[in-house]
Amino acid sequence: MDYPTRQRERERESEAETEEQTEGREAERVCDECGSGKLVNTDDGRELVCDECGLIAEETNIDRGPEWRAFNHSERQQKSRVGAPTTQTMHDKGLTTQIDWKDKDAYGRSISSEKRSQMHRLRKWQERIRTKDAGERNLQFALSEIDRMASALGVPRSVREVASVIYRRALNEDLIRGRSIEGVATSCLYAACRKEGIPRSLEEITEVSRVERKEIGRTYRYISQELGLEMEPVDPKKYVPRFCSELELSEEVEAKANEIIQVTAEKGLLSGKSPTGYAAAAIYAASLLCNEKKTQREVAGVAQVTEVTIRNRYQEQIEAMGI
């Protein structure tokens, strides 16, 4: 055995002995106040605290945070030396270089015409080399479609992330073959809305999509079955706040509509019914009971259901409530 190898082995043995001694000392330590041996480190690792009485047994001065200070969001963004976090909503997860479209230098001054044409060429080539094959081009187009539709629907960022993950899974499982990219992207967005508990009806999704309702429903059923997405039935109560807000109804009507939905659902009336139509009928009934009458046409327009649906569900709910 040569000398460097023996030296490395001795260093490893000494490190192991030091760790064992440190662990033994920590295990032997008890609280000076209550005698408990439950000493734990705080989240930032700067203090050793007794879990029983809260006494600070040891305090270190190691600050593991950044050396700079910031007092608002803009200062924090300015001083931070790291890039944006990775995101599933971009085909390259946001890790590639971005060339800004503004023809200005770091000081905000306009660049010369020669530099401007050079930046234009660089920007063009940057867009070309970001996608290396057909799969990435497919993903880039689909994720841009998901982002566009999500913006039109007004859903939060978390829904876009979930929709992007579902589409990536569908692409890896080769479920897109024989189907349109827009149809699969729309179905993934619809599934993500249901997953995150922010329901949007198929009619609302169809309004912002470029494919028909029938294709979206068919593709959604296929993808959810193949990927094993466990979807719970949509609760009509989740539609009530949004519909009441668009109809400018009071909180009293909203509370009454939720009560009607809960009582009638417990009696089994919700089974097999459309949640949007059921919520719309409950809002219509609640508006009559609270003297804030809205016509069936107004409620049907907001919920995107027919007036016949509201009349049928309304009659069933009123009979079940015994009103």
From TrEMBL:
GO terms for biological process: DNA-templated transcription initiation. It comes from the Archaea. Residues 144-225, 238-319 form the Cyclin-like domain. Zn(2+) binds at C31, C34, C50, C53. The keyword Metal-binding applies. CDD domains: CYCLIN_TFIIB_archaea_like_rpt1. Residues 1-30 are annotated as: Disordered. Sequence repeats lie at residues 144-227, 238-319. One of its GO terms (molecular function) is DNA-binding transcription factor activity. Pfam families: TFIIB, Zn_Ribbon_TF. Keywords: Metal-binding, Repeat, Transcription, Transcription regulation, Zinc, Zinc-finger. Belongs to the TFIIB family. Stabilizes TBP binding to an archaeal box-A promoter. Also responsible for recruiting RNA polymerase II to the pre-initiation complex (DNA-TBP-TFIIB). This is Transcription initiation factor IIB.
